[in-house]
């Protein structure tokens, strides 16, 4: 991973603050937005471990901020179904080349946008079996990519959760899954001192901004924010794929 200058580090800090606020409001943001600045600066390979480290802070903050709305039953179902496939996904990611990692991240970012919209448009609740099956698929995707948190959000909403309950439950599941990912990445030797430092910086900023997000979560028009974020995700994912395939 190349050295990061002070100016580049400032850019990371700035986007971490923005993504921390949006993530605290919409339930996702860090995994979708941070790769847009991290990939050009540090390369694709370290991105997933960096986001996994930072997510430990941001998800802990979301659980603390919205703990009263946590749906423990759905969190347990998701964890039981997703943890085994998460380990597989994280291990597969450690085998990818830098170019392969960029393609995987880009495709995932783009795919999450229509997937979320399709589930929302159908307006149907998932039963326990459907929700569990979706968690299995989400496990392997989230194990080896960033930005896949929106899939879990969509599953939770399709299962009938709304508002802060979605954010709290998603954060609890993602927190446990993040521990598993870090164990796999640590054993594979992909967590270097630079990866750890950047992950800790992003995570510390995200932890603080999550509580700011809680103050405005009832005031911000979520629909407008989601539309803007979707556009950024689609553009960023496309750019990463193009850069990987035509360097």
Mean pLDDT: 81
Tell me the count of domains. Answer: 1
Number of strands: 0
Count of separate DSSP helical elements: 10
Please state the overall shape, judged from the principal axes of the Cα atoms: globular
Please give the alpha-carbon distance between the first and last residues: 18 Å
Our estimate of the beta-strand percent is under 5%
Largest sheet: none
Structural class category: mainly alpha
Helix residue percentage: over 70%
What's the order of the H and E elements?
HHHHHHHHHH
Q: Can you tell me the residue ranges where pLDDT is under 50 for at least 5 consecutive residues?
A: none
* Rg computed from alpha carbons, rounded to a whole number of angstroms: 16 Å
Describe the protein.
- The structure is a single chain.
- The chain has helices at 6-26, 30-42, 47-65, 72-94, 98-122, 128-144, 149-158, 164-188, 193-216, 222-245.
- It has one domain (45-245).
- It contains ten helices and no strands.
- The protein has 247 residues and is mainly alpha-helical.
- It is globular.
Describe the secondary structure blueprint for this structure.
Blueprint: H1 6-26, H2 30-42, H3 47-65, H4 72-94, H5 98-122, H6 128-144, H7 149-158, H8 164-188, H9 193-216, H10 222-245
Helix pairs in contact: 1-2, 1-9, 2-3, 2-10, 3-8, 3-9, 4-6, 4-8, 5-7, 5-10, 6-7, 7-8
